[in-house]
Design goal:
mainly alpha; about 180 residues; elongated; 2 domains
Amino acid sequence: MPEIPDPDHQTNDARGSSPNHGLRTHPFNVTLHGLEELDQFSTDAERQAALKEIADEAADLTSKGYWLGVGILVGVTLSVWAGSAWLLTLASWPSAVKEILRWLVMATSFFLTLRWLHRWGAREELREKLLARGVPICIKCGYSLRGATPESTNCPECGQKIDERAAKILASGKNPLE
């Protein structure tokens, strides 16, 4: 029996990247969908390696960033829980309706905060990974510097001084897409 092709593995451009950028390999990576930096990787394998490195760094229980994120998530969730409890005392609804609303508001705030925390810093991390892989990119705004000349000193998009690593890539004349 012939296999039915998986639409997530079809290519959408000349570099062979999948339409979802391989974001389905980890459930939290779905929150990174739409980041332009993901399009800058020359292969899906490089993109996946960068995403795995970022996930491993984020899951490091010894890092301050991990515990800062946990603290923010707990703080926001508890604040919303207490605030919604107080606000719902003003309503004259049945207690079951109030409890359902409070749980819905708390769950929504939890997942929105979790998504924000997951995306927080992801752009900068992806830019660092791109530079490490030889892709010239502005570290501040994410503008692709592939067409810039080695004499360029500032990003044409934001005016930021071109990062030393990106300048070295431009000076080498290597195009990661070739």
